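User: Can you help me understand a structure? I only have the sequence.
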Amino acid sequence: MDRQQEYVLRTVEERDIGFVRLWFTDVLGKLKSVAITSSELEGAFAEGIGFDGSAVDGFARVQESDMLAVPDATTFQMLPWRQERPGVGRMLCDIRTPEGEPYTADPRQVLRRTLARAADMGFTFYVHPEMEFFLFRGPDDPTPLDDGGYFDLTPNEAQSDFRRQAIVHLEAMGISVEFSHHENAPGQHEIDLRYADALTMADNVMTFRTVVKEVAMQRGLHATFMPKPIADQWGSAMHTHLSLFDGDTNAFYDPDAEYHLSAVAKHFMAGLLRHAREITAICCQWVNSYKRLVPGAPPAPFEAPVYVGWGRQNRSALIRVPMYKPTKGASTRIEFRAPDPACNPYLAFAVMLSAGLEGIVHGYELPPEQTDDIYAMTDAERRRSGIGHLPRSLDEALAEMEESKLVADTLGDHVHEYFLRNKRAEWEEYQAQVTPYELKRYLPTL
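Assistant: Let's start by predicting it. Here is the structure, written out as tokens:
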């Protein structure tokens, strides 16, 4: 037993923790949980907790269904919203086979494999997501609680208390928050998590979504990470800031280079741009995701990143290079604006990293910066400038993903095949629906 496991066992005893929830994530990014009593924790560390993998989306087939959830002691935290005694803790788990081998279809393992590839190249991958979501009156009542806009100070006390309590809980669980604010749409909010290595951050995103929903439920509200719940308003994104470090040095920073972007940064960006269409189905995995990926109507576009290009201050581009303080070159990073907050963060971070590493390995050349408003350009102007378009539907995104060797290699055959099959079924079910739009438009006249 290692020191971290001993620390957890000692903490459980000293803080009167009666139950520990073991969390893991299925291929679609849904959190799974099994609760054990504190007396079973030492055995869970030693042997894992067995479960039927065939009952979990994207895991094992029936004939190979036995799986083990092995808790990662470094992720132990108390659940701050469970105030009663005995207390409740939680840990994220790695999934293993009965023989103790890492299970290839575990999303955490998918990300670990990709991070290992980066480590072999001398890099550590850091991410910083901006988490957007909506607060509604209930799951069946998508009525915003306010009419506020970007950075507005709304008088609704329930929302101010909500964000404060959510941040208190997150900080209590070791998740650092940079800031929070009201977003563009009515009832829409953003909480930005401080940067961390990609595996820690993927764990944090899963915890974040749970905390936000728990705090909302306690207040009789409903929080949703649905990408586009209101048709004529902005959707919710998970703009993700990315950087590679070589030891303590930011590999994206070069004080003598144009824009202070190193060759590593430019190749990484070029890789993301070249493979952007292939990885979109992972970063935007739901039918509803593509209702967000529309430009909106000028003069008030939604600033959704539908066009494949990059710029420094250009929020119409897929990749943005944020400004940083002159004395803080270590904060050099790029912002990838495609993902939405309902993605599987383990898989999304893995394919983003893989795309960027491909650019580094093969020396992809970064195309020219887009300084014009891409939304205001005509289709012909965009074609002449070599600006592509992200997939316009889940169906189109899946077609790109299916042909992508990069995505297949990153996910592994099992996850790649399951994800495609599951999402095609979702698309076909959606296609069979008759929507209110169709009834309103066609029923009276056809």
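Now, to help you interpret it: The chain has two domains: 3-98, 112-440. The mean pLDDT is 91. Let me know which part you'd like to focus on.
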